[in-house]
Design brief:
12 strands, alpha/beta, Alpha-Beta Plaits, 3 domains, globular, oxidoreductase, binds nicotinamide-adenine-dinucleotide, four-stranded antiparallel β-sheet, eight-stranded mixed β-sheet, 14 helices, 6-phosphogluconate dehydrogenase C-terminal fold
Length: 365
């Protein structure tokens, strides 16, 4: 597709969108704008954008597609700017914000001016931020939720999907309220709980200074998302506060019920609490990316000797298997180490499992 695309916000999401759009539409001109000159220069230096905009207004006025990939509060501010300036007649505006209600509310002012706005939320990401973390495969197989505004008809929806084809995401349409309820439950609320768990461990550290050394394995896995950007999560929490207040109150009720059954030493109800949670958790899809990201993880027990990690990665490289992540689980200090290797696909995971299990040094599961 030909045309000029302005991406405002050249971070993890904006940068990754630039790469996906350019890959699918090499003839399009990708103009980038970020309030951080450093990120903008980096994006240009890395070849992620074709041009730097002098200002948001200048970039927006010449664009056929405008993508707002800044924090949610900033998206609303940039939408206010779009209301005031002259834009191309058939311009299409979208965003990447993780909360949709306040954005869709703000979009009605754009609709009043005849501007097509389609809310967007690519449900893939990472706890990393910045353009350096951007990558083309970030959205592959992930759900990409679209919330069309009043002025956005079927043709505009099709146009946006064509622009975003290179993301290789799975598009889903819904309204903003449904989106915020859904993502509140499976994405935003878990962040609140993960950070609360870390606060609990931090408090316990006063009495047990060694707690951080013992808080390995399961604790680290459960609280991984607490390492995400505090600014972005404060923004999301306050923008989706209505849904999160409801979920926090429901959680309080669950905590009260749990407190009661534990105080009463009620084995049957305690067992039911865990087994119902396990049944639901085990039933979640694991082979495709979604609202709860699925990871193609392989666990490998390795002996403790220098160079052993290089041996594992060399075997994978020799067999042309790429990995997306590699980390060490500190299960027990005196025992063998456990590596967690993440792959891009289920097929790669199976191949990795096959080649590594042939090595007697490693135990793979
Ligand atoms: P990021 O911190 O990596 O990048 C945001 C960029 O926006 C930064 O470079 C910052 O300088 C720039 N910026 C901030 N305010 C600006 C303004 N007023 N004008 C121009 N540039 C501005 O963040 P990210 O992870 O790419 O998130 C961007 C958006 O995508 C957010 O709305 C977030 O809710 C959403 N999102 C994030 C994830 C994720 O996991 N990171 C997933 C889906 C959606």
């Amino acid at each position: 597709m030909k045309g000029t695309v302005l991406i405002a916000g050249l971070g993890l999401i904006g940068g990754s969108l630039c790469i996906s759009i350019k890959k699918e539409h090499p003839e399009a001109k990708i103009v980038g704008y970020d309030r951080s000159e450093r990120e903008m220069n980096l994006a240009k230096g890395l070849g992620i954008i074709d041009e730097e905009a002098d200002s948001f207004e200048q970039g927006a006025s010449g664009a056929d597609l405008i993508v707002l990939a800044v924090p949610v509060i900033q998206i609303i501010k940039l939408m206010e700017v779009l209301q005031r300036i002259g834009l191309k007649k058939n311009v299409l505006v979208t965003d990447a914000g993780s909360v949709k209600n306040p954005i869709m509310k703000a979009s009605s002012n754009l609709s009043d001016k005849g501007i097509s706005f389609i809310g967007g939320h690519p449900m893939a990401g990472s706890h990393k931020s910045g353009v350096k973390a951007a990558k083309d495969l970030l959205f592959e197989n992930a759900y990409y939720i679209l919330t069309p505004g009043r002025e956005a008809g079927k043709d505009k929806l099709a146009e946006l999907k064509t622009w975003l084809k290179g993301t290789r995401a799975k598009f889903l349409e819904m309204n903003a309220a449904e989106h915020d309820e859904l993502t509140g439950a499976v994405s935003h609320f878990p962040h609140l709980v993960a950070s609360s768990l870390v606060h609990t461990a931090k408090k316990a550290q006063k009495n047990f200074p060694f707690i951080s050394r013992l808080a390995a394995g399961g604790f680290k896995d459960t609280t991984r998302i607490a390492s995400a950007d505090p600014q972005m999560w404060s923004d999301i929490t306050l923008q989706n506060s209505r849904v999160l207040i409801k979920l926090l109150n429901e959680w309080k009720e669950t905590a009260d019920e749990l407190l009661e059954i534990v105080e009463r030493q009620d084995y049957e109800k305690t067992f039911r609490f865990f087994s119902e949670a396990k049944a639901f958790r085990d039933g979640l899809p694991v082979k495709s990316k979604g609202a709860i990201p699925a990871f193609y993880d392989l666990y490998v027990d390795i002996p403790d000797h220098p160079g052993v990690i290089a041996e594992v990665t060399a075997i994978l490289a020799k067999n042309d298997i790429s990995i997306t992540n590699l980390r060490i689980l500190e299960m027990r200090e005196d025992a063998v180490g456990r590596l967690v290797i993440s792959f891009q696909s289920h097929a790669d995971l199976e191949k990795g499992k096959d080649v590594l299990s042939k090595e007697t040094l490693f135990e793979v599961f």
